[in-house]
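Cross-check.
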Amino acid sequence: MRLILGSASSIRGDLLRRAGLAFEQIPARIDEQALRASLEAEQAAPRDIADALAEFKARKIADKHPDAMVIGCDQILHLKGQIFEKCDTLDQARAQIAALSGQTHMLISAVVVYENAKPVWRHIETVRLTMRALSKAAQERYLSDNWPGVADAVGCYKLEHQGVRLFSAVKGDYFAVLGLPLLPLLSYLAQRGVIET
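Predicted model, tokenized:
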């Protein structure tokens, strides 16, 4: 079956390629900020927001390619009820790193699969990450070394790069931190015969 990843994320694409999957990568063009704001206004839980956004993305691509199996993904970072977004400016990045410093936050990664333009499988993974208490100098050094490379990462860190140095503990699935609960997804694809068992 034709497989489509409905995401522009290079890391998600790399994860699937390294797992040996043949797929197309077609970004889902949705107004993420408006959808997230609407869900937050309805007081949806962060877990439900991640799931809904992943489904919106999968549905958007599946409507145009009903013959394909479509993978939609999303990730939400929240700290004490506050949801964080990707940063457009260095000042926003400074504020996020300062807010996360010395705190434990949750990173929720959702994946939804569509077949025949209908949702057939979903998985949500939550990871708890504890960032070390960083001095202002350490925060500035980190951002000067990594900005704007971390602008496309919620929380302004990439665990697969220097961001790993910011943390004292990570409890949960490493792949989910990268934006895709890979092992549960591969298990589902194996059940469907997309990959050999």
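Residues 46-64 form the longest helix (19 residues). Helices lie at 10-18, 32-41, 46-64, 90-100, 136-146, 174-177, 182-191. Passed to J.P. for a second look.
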